[in-house]
Amino acid sequence: MKKILTVIGARPQIIKAAALSRAIRNNYSDRIEEKILHTGQHYDMNMSQVFFEELCIPKPDYNLNVGSGKHGEQTAKMIAGIEEILLSEHFDGVVLYGDTNSTLAGAIAASKLHVPIFHIEAGLRSFNMDMPEEINRIVCDQLSSILFAPTNTAVANLKNEGFEIAPAIFHGNKHRQVYNSGDVMYDNSMYFATIADKKSNILREYGLQANSFILATIHRDYNTDSKERLTDIFKALYYIANEYRIKIAIPLHPRTAKLLEINLDVDLIDKVKQLAQILILPPVSFLDMISLEKNAKLIMTDSGGVQKEAFFYEKPCIILRSETEWVEIVENNAGIIADADFNRIVNAYNVLSVSNMSFPQLFGNSKAANIILDKIVAY
Asked: Are residues 256 and 292 in the same domain?
């Protein structure tokens, strides 16, 4: 029996971890014991606890409760806490997801103690070094024993950076391994889609009709912290909702909700709040989010995860960033990079709302978790 420590710290990582935990419970319980460590990077009832309950993920065995803070301060606290857990009992490996500060902290702590690191969502690149996430994912890839890339593009990124021929040798004289595993979020999206149909009441609650509304999410700090960018995004949302008489549902990240009052002019806030077509929602559960994504006409987002889920559910996507790690979406004309620019957002809506597009199977066969666990067991 091998024991792994899964490190999570943000809501998307909790969701991703559901796929692996479910596969361990159903198919690997005789070979793998999983313990879960929540760093507390993001933690409140709406954003974390409800996800454990709704997705049937085991409650964390450890919670560091580090809370928010400056990048260095937050990461340092997490490194110290993760190191203490790794020293307290033997683990055969550490599973890390994505590109948060929790990912970075887990990679540093585990590598110093020679515990193998298994990085899920390896090889993603925005090539924008201003993004903290880009730094985190690059460092984690460099320190990982197995890199589980979700797409062919991610594998190509790693190949271009020399990972396939890198001479790095890890503890126990083991070499780094790279695999295209497919995407664990595709596993989850397919698994929970039918459950959401039965359990979510969010469309009825807010009077939304299938394929007749836009779903918008905004949470990236370079959008929320910038008065200019946030203003352009909400001006575009207001214009589209008002001009085309289409409802826009916006589940607001708590941080975004706070910054709206700071970074938007009072007149714009009032116009947005008074327009019946714009629905400002509190943070929603994972099943409610799936229901919104499946039933939206179009999705606007600065979230990498939501971009993918739009593609999974065959919805066109306006990307509120200057680049994307998921270039396949743009290359297949299923998404347009509009950044935080009023004219580009409106133009993207006009193009995507009338386009016919295809959604080829780019993210695996919904068996990524099994592929990952097979490779971990073999390692």
From this structure: yes
Residue 70: give the domain boundaries: 2-183+364-378
Average pLDDT, the chain: 93
Which contiguous run of DSSP H or E holds residue 237? helix 227-243
Residues 215 and 346 in one domain: yes
**What is the tens place of the pLDDT at every residue in 219-264?**
888 999 999 999 999 999 999 999 999 999 999 977 788 899 899 9
Which residue, 337, 325, 344, is CA-closest to 98? Answer: 325
Residues noted as catalytic: 219
Q: How many domains does the chain have?
A: 2
Which residues lie across from 318 on neighbouring strands? 300, 336
Q: Which residues pair with 32 in a beta bridge?
A: 2
**CATH number of residue 142's parent domain:** 3.40.50.2000
Residue 129 phi/psi, 5-degree rounding, is -75, 0
- The angle, 0 to 180 degrees and rounded to 10, between the axes of the packed helices 101-112 and 132-143 is 30
270 and 307 belong to one structural domain: yes
Burial class (CB in 10 A: 0-12, 13-18, 19+), 323: middle
Query: For the segment 296-336, what is each residue's pLDDT rounded down to a tens digit?
Result: 999 999 999 899 999 999 999 999 999 998 999 999 999 99
Q: What is the pLDDT of residues 102-111, one digit of tens each?
A: 999 999 999 9
d(CA 16, CA 356): 30
For residues 127 and 230, membership in a common domain is answered with no
246 shares a domain with 222: yes
Q: What pLDDT score does 154 carry?
A: 96
**Does the residue 347 lie in any domain?**
yes
Dist CA 209 CA 195 (whole Å): 19
58 lies in a domain?
yes
- d(C-alpha 55, C-alpha 167), whole Å: 40
